[in-house]
Amino acid sequence: MDDSAHFTRTWQVTASGGYDTAWGRFEEDRLQARGRALGLEDGPYWVAYRLVTGPRFVTRELHVTVDGPGAARRELDLRRDEAGRWTVDGQPREEFEGALDCDLGLCPLTNTMPVLRHGLHLRDAGAPERPFLMAWVSVPDLVVTPSEQVYTPLGGHRVRYASGSFTADVEFDADGLVRHYPGLATGLHAGPAGSAS
Fold first, then answer.
1. Nearest of 193, 150, 154 to residue 174 by alpha carbon
2. Which end of the chain is more exposed for a tag (fewer CB within 10 A), N or C?
3. DSSP-assigned letters across all residues of 160-172
């Protein structure tokens, strides 16, 4: 990946019966992105999000707005400061202490940060698994809860994701963006970003 590269990705999100498009920029070990998604399962609803990370792809802020189903409208402001303190809509949340990443439900983009931080998509099978604590955001209700997850390199740009009883062997591209996530999403379009095309 170049030190600075823009990208566009669109996924068909099978889990929501909809689509998600992200427009973003990598700058060294930082990521900024915005996205729009449509969900039809339990919907329809529309999601708009903005993600900013600091160095090592550590989450700084995630802002999400959901319109629908019906006339419902919800907003979320999730932040992590340089001391590792998390807030949800300005309120401290100590249960996320130690977490480096947010994980926006039904959004393939937020699998990218831990994968790039540790180069998991570039490691061979047999490399050690990595446990993570995530600030997981459910969609469309925008409830934030701690989520323990494990990422295990499988080689060939594939990483096994596990959380509770759920597992999926996720395929990433060379830039660490999801190409295929069984049961969740499949990439439809890849715009420029470093080595991806």
1. 193
2. C
3. EEEETTEEEEEEE
